[in-house]
Design goal:
heterodimer; A: about 450 residues; seven-stranded mixed beta sheet; B: about 90 residues; mainly alpha; Non-ribosomal Peptide Synthetase Peptidyl Carrier Protein, Chain A; 4 helices
Amino acid sequence: MSDYDVIIVGAGMSGLAAGIRLAMFDRRVCIVEQHDQFGGLNSFYTRNGRLFDVGLHALTNYVPDGVRAAPLPKLLRQLRIPRDEWNLAPQRFSEIHFPDRRLRFGNEIGLLTEEIAREFPAQIDGFLRLVQAIHEYDDTRLNPPKQSTRVILADYLTDPVLTDMILCAVMYYGNPQPRDIDWTAFVILFKSIFLEGLCRPRGGVRTIIRSLVKRFRECRGVFRMGCAVQSFAVSDRRVQGVVLENGAVLTADVVLSSAGYPETMQLCHETSAQIEGRLSFFESIFVLNVQPSEHGHKAAIVFFNDNDRFTYDKPDDLIDPSSGVICCPNNFDETETIEGMIRLTSLADYDRWANLPPAKYASARQDCCQRALSRVIQAGLLPDIQPHVVFVDSFTPKTIRDFTRHINGAVYGSPDKHRDGKTPLENLFVIGTDQGYLGIVGSLLSGITIANLHVLSADL
Amino acid sequence: MTDEQVKKAVLDIIAIVSPDADLSNIDPAVRLRDQLELDSMDFLDIVMELRKRFKVEVPKEDYMQLASLDSCVAYLKPKFETAGVRL
């Protein structure tokens, strides 16, 4: 008999969700995680006695209590977690900011529609048709055709600035592909941001992680933390065992891997023809001794671009500070007393960071942090918070690579997704980033979907 | 084993799978899906729960047998009896 029915590689959101589903129905499940911390790309860490979230501080797919047929309530039902446990605070509003243009949006499509009618009156009919088309598109198919969103959007919107503004928010939220985005991915992200909405768990992402870890343990799931996988032992087109870096071998009937598709193939010593993702990010968190709203910054999230056109591509520099995301966790629920915090994200080039001589790395990091901050202050996207900064932490594409082992530090993984989770090996499936659903809600659904499809239903 | 006991066993499972569902006025002759907004993920859970609690297997091709409470009784009662389930 195998050591486990299922081994899951990675204790991130997708691994935890898959683990809960399987353990709930009495499968013997072990989650193997290289770090001592849960959450993967949506984790938290401590610096100088402060807790920081790794992810965007926000959850998509917010729907009011009582709505049933939507991803968030569905996944809570599937995991049998009461919604109250996540203590979600909905945003009031966020915005998309371009030169001389600003669109606010909230958790009802109404605000965005009004804003577009005001800023782009000639586009409003096209926009409403677009929303209709998105409502009608079936994004749940496991093998949808790849289609260019820019081409499709041209049927609805004729103003390139509006097209870019919508793409800016959607792409920063979860697009692994440069310049354009696959239509199915666009539809899923558009729904999750604009038709549903944004919220933040009070207490940060650890509120969710704690709830998931507790649930997995209640179902008698087993964790092996601080345990990196070195390779998969493969024969007869099956994974026979998971080889850990300490030399131990664990056997299982099924393996679910959240390591990324090309990364998973490397663990099998298989080559993958798949294109590797190359979009990575530079991110700084500024801790302030004031609340950003006291200085006039009230948006939960600002997606911005201060160039003529918005490109979303790997920069020819360490970072590209001309577009990005400003996130303020304080602006979800102002009654929650947390230190003032601003998180600023820019596109970055992994190779340039990886090739920096060690002596220059720290100063480059500091330099880029300052450049990105100065730029958004000069562009009027953020009040001058510099006198109020009490602590800064930045991470680079190299940090992402070292922490997640994602090739090229590609946060959103490869542009080629594997929605059915299948690999060339019959008992190995991918979950998480490269299965194709993104964000916290997407990753959780990914784990649930693949566990249901390839383990629970497969046994029937 | 009475029909009512089988219905109750099914409703107990639905109450766990879909805790916010209102089970007070279910018409046993009408499809559960139409009354409770159950989706395919919820149905999978009902099947998994039947297996976990009563060791009763419902293969995919028989899913439609669980459409309404009445059809659940017709389909599950003999299975429960064969499996020696005591309700």
